[in-house]
Amino acid sequence: MVEVKLSENETGLGGFKKNSRYMDVGGWRIGIVPDVRFDLGDADFFVKVVFTPGEEVGFAARQPRLVGLFPVDLHKAQAAARERPHP
């Protein structure tokens, strides 16, 4: 299972997911965050992608894990992009 959440906290798995929507496109799972409006220069929150394995792993391994963390704040996003290694 994949969940897309909005969160003010960079750490942890929590976040607002009530209005998130999901669809499959050509075998890819797509998450859509709620329709929100914000100023990129003043948006201090994160989009989190949380994956919980299913029956493909043993029961003990079915723990949710953060697989994507994306800052919406323009300055944090630019800094994160500079820190990422480029191929």
Query: What order do the helices and strands follow?
Result: EEEEEH
Fraction of residues in β-strands: 25-35%
Strand arrangement in the largest pleated sheet = 1-4-5
Give the strand tally: 5
- pLDDT < 50 runs, ≥5 residues: none
Structural class: mainly beta
Q: How far apart, in Å, are the first and last alpha carbons?
A: 29 Å
- Largest sheet at a glance? 3 strands, antiparallel
pLDDT averaged residue by residue: 86
- What is the radius of gyration? 15 Å
Number of helical stretches of at least 4 residues: 1
Gross geometry: globular
- Percent helix, as a range, is 10-25%
Care to describe what's here?
It contains one helix and five strands. It is mainly β and 87 residues long. The strands form two sheets. It has a three-stranded antiparallel β-sheet with strand order 1-4-5. Strands 2-3 form a two-stranded antiparallel ribbon. The N and C termini lie far apart (29 Å).
Index terms:
mainly beta; single chain; 33% strand; globular; 87 residues; 5 strands; 1 helix; two-stranded antiparallel sheet; 3-stranded antiparallel β-sheet
Summary?
The protein has one helix and five strands; from the N terminus they run E-E-E-E-E-H.
Set out the fold topology.
Elements: E1 2-7, E2 21-25, E3 28-32, E4 46-51, E5 65-71, H1 74-83
Antiparallel strand pairs: 1-4, 2-3, 4-5
